[in-house]
Amino acid sequence: MYVKICGLSEPEHVATAVEAGADAIGFVMTRSPRRVTPERAAELAALVPEHVLTVGVFRGEDPETVRAAALVSGVRAVQLHGKHPHGDFTALKDLGRSLVRAVDAAADLRCGAFDEDLLIVDAPHAGSGQPWDWAAVRGRPSGRWMLAGGLDPANVAEAVAAAAPWGVDVSSGVETAPGVKDSALITAFLTAARRAA
Ligand SMILES: O=C(O)c1ccccc1N[C@@H]1O[C@H](COP(=O)(O)O)[C@@H](O)[C@H]1O
């Protein structure tokens, strides 16, 4: 089970996620309580070993803004969240970073349909942090896809059993308040996700 921990902003939590075995770590560079500047993301990304994928998360920014932030931060993947057109992915193809498309279940759920390398299927109301009907997407996405939206250490096993994803992605479910990550919750999530696989 591939596990991404998203929305990190403190070195302590980056270290915890790496030590606990995260496969990918996300830095949010768009409007959010978890927002970090590209410069701050660069400081945090420098703490991440090569085998862990660093992901810059964007929502609604134009490709040139995304490109500039990706280059400053040095993230190795770019996540375009929400209703980005296919052209945004095409425009970023020459960036030399993995592309991640994050959408809700109403979208095209074929990983690669927008030339992306990874697909995330998120809640209908992205960012609510609320569990949703994970079972509704079971068998629909194809390729490398992660389930997101309202996951936490207590429900990730149920979510994995319901949707059978290739990976899982969490942000608010490992926080004690919006934007405030918790090391114990990060470790608990990784343990529970691995056990669920
Ligand atoms: O985490 C954020 O603040 C965020 C902001 C804007 C776009 C995406 C964001 N995060 C992504 O949202 C999903 C679900 O997160 P949650 O666990 O329900 O809080 C996940 O893909 C994050 O990468």
UniProtKB/TrEMBL annotation:
GO terms for molecular function: phosphoribosylanthranilate isomerase activity. It catalyses: N-(5-phospho-beta-D-ribosyl)anthranilate = 1-(2-carboxyphenylamino)-1-deoxy-D-ribulose 5-phosphate. Its EC number is 5.3.1.24. Coiled coil: none annotated. The keyword Isomerase applies. InterPro entries: Aldolase_TIM, PRAI_dom, RibuloseP-bd_barrel, TrpF_fam. Keywords: Amino-acid biosynthesis, Aromatic amino acid biosynthesis, Isomerase, Tryptophan biosynthesis. Residues 3-190 form the N-(5'phosphoribosyl) anthranilate isomerase (PRAI) domain. GO terms for biological process: L-tryptophan biosynthetic process. It comes from the Bacteria. Transmembrane segments: none annotated. Belongs to the TrpF family. This is N-(5'-phosphoribosyl)anthranilate isomerase. It comes from Nonomuraea zeae. The lineage of its organism: Bacteria, Bacillati, Actinomycetota, Actinomycetes, Streptosporangiales. The gene is trpF.
